[in-house]
C-alpha cells in the first residue's frame, strides 16, 4: 500500500483506558499472606496493604498526611462519628485502624474493611476510576479488555457447528432473518467473525471477537474502522493489511478511530510506528513527578 491515512479524532481515548489500567492496580494486586502472619489482624493488614500500594503505584505523589486524611474521612463517613485526635503519619494511621476496628462488631469487620478501602480508592483523582473489585467484576473487566463475551456464542447465533465450512456459514447467514434489530446486529457480528478465516481461528482458540470492521471504498481505498483496542489488535491489523497487500490491491489505507472506546496505551508505540515511522515520540508516562518517554516501534 502506497499511502496511509490516519483518522484520530478520538485518539485520546487510548489513554483513557490505559490510565484506568494503572488505576486498577489496587484491585488486582492486593493480597496478604495470612499463613505467615497468623497473629496479625487480617483487616488491619489488608488496609495497610491498600495504603502501601497506593503510595507505591498511584500516579501522583501522596504524603502520609494526605493519605491518612483520606482514610480518616472515609472512616468518619462510614461510622457517622468524628474521630478524635490528630492523624498525620503512617504510625498514626495504624493506631487509628486499631482503634476503629476495635469499635466494629466482629461480624461487621469484613464489610467495614472493604467499604473503607473502596471509599478511599474511589476518592483518588480522577474520582471513581479506582475501585475495589470482586473476582467476578475483575473477570468481567478482563473479558471486556480482551473483547470476549462469554454470554454469546457466534456458532449458536448462526446455528452452525464449530466445524462448519465457510459455505455452510454463508448459507446459514443468508437464511437468518431476525426481526428484532438487536438480533440482526448479533447475526451480522457473528458472520463477520466466522466468515473471516483469521478472525475465526482467533475466536476458536480464545473466544476473542474482532476489533476491526473493514471494507473497500471504490477500487483503491481499504477502510478499517478500529472499534477498540485489545491485546490482539496489532495482530488483527497486520493480518488484514497483509491480506490485501498484493499486486493490484488497494493503494490507500484509512484507519478510522471514531467512536473507539479505548484500550491499552502499551499498544500505542506499535500502532503509530507504521504511520509516523520508528523512534518517534508516541506518548509520555507520568508517575509521581517523573516522566518517561515512549517512542514508536515497528515489528
From TrEMBL:
SUPFAM superfamilies in the record: Chaperone J-domain, ClpP/crotonase
Keyword Coiled coil tagged: yes
Protein name from the UniProt record: J domain-containing protein
Keywords, sorted A to Z: Coiled coil
Coiled-coil regions listed in the entry: 170-197
Annotated Gene3D superfamilies: 2-enoyl-CoA Hydratase, Chain A, domain 1 (3.90.226.10), DnaJ domain (1.10.287.110)
Species of the source: Candidatus Shapirobacteria bacterium CG08_land_8_20_14_0_20_39_18
Amino acid at each position: 500500500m502506497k499511502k496511509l491515512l490516519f483518522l484520530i479524532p478520538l485518539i485520546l481515548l487510548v489513554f483513557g483506558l490505559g490510565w484506568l489500567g494503572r488505576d486498577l492496580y489496587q484491585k488486582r494486586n492486593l493480597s496478604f499472606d495470612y499463613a505467615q502472619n497468623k497473629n496479625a489482624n487480617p483487616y488491619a493488614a489488608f488496609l495497610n496493604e491498600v495504603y502501601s500500594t497506593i503510595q507505591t503505584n498511584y500516579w501522583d505523589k501522596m504524603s502520609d498526611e494526605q493519605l491518612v486524611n483520606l482514610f480518616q474521612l472515609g472512616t468518619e463517613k462510614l461510622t457517622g462519628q468524628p474521630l478524635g485526635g490528630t492523624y498525620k503519619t503512617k504510625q498514626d494511621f495504624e493506631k487509628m485502624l486499631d482503634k476503629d476496628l476495635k469499635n466494629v462488631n466482629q461480624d461487621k469487620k469484613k464489610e467495614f474493611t472493604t467499604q473503607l478501602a473502596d471509599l478511599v480508592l474511589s476518592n483518588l483523582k480522577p474520582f471513581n476510576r479506582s475501585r475495589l473489585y470482586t473476582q467476578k467484576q475483575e473477570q468481567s473487566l478482563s473479558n471486556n479488555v480482551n473483547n470476549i463475551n462469554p454470554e454469546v456464542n457466534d456458532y449458536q447465533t448462526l446455528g452452525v457447528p464449530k466445524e462448519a465450512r465457510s459455505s455452510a456459514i454463508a448459507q446459514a447467514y443468508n437464511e437468518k432473518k431476525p426481526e428484532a434489530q438487536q438480533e440482526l446486529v448479533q447475526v451480522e457480528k457473528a458472520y463477520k467473525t466466522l466468515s473471516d478465516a483469521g478472525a475465526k481461528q482467533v475466536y476458536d482458540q480464545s473466544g476473542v471477537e474482532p476489533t476491526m470492521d473493514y471494507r473497500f471504498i471504490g477500487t483503491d481505498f481499504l477502510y478499517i474502522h478500529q472499534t477498540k483496542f485489545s491485546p490482539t489488535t496489532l495482530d488483527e491489523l497486520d493480518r488484514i493489511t497483509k491480506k490485501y497487500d498484493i499486486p493490484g490491491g488497494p493503494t490507500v489505507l484509512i484507519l478510522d478511530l471514531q467512536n473507539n472506546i479505548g484500550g491499552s496505551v502499551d499498544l500505542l508505540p506499535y500502532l503509530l510506528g507504521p504511520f509516523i515511522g520508528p523512534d518517534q515520540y508516541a506518548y509520555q508516562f507520568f508517575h509521581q513527578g517523573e516522566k518517561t518517554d515512549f517512542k514508536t516501534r515497528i515489528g
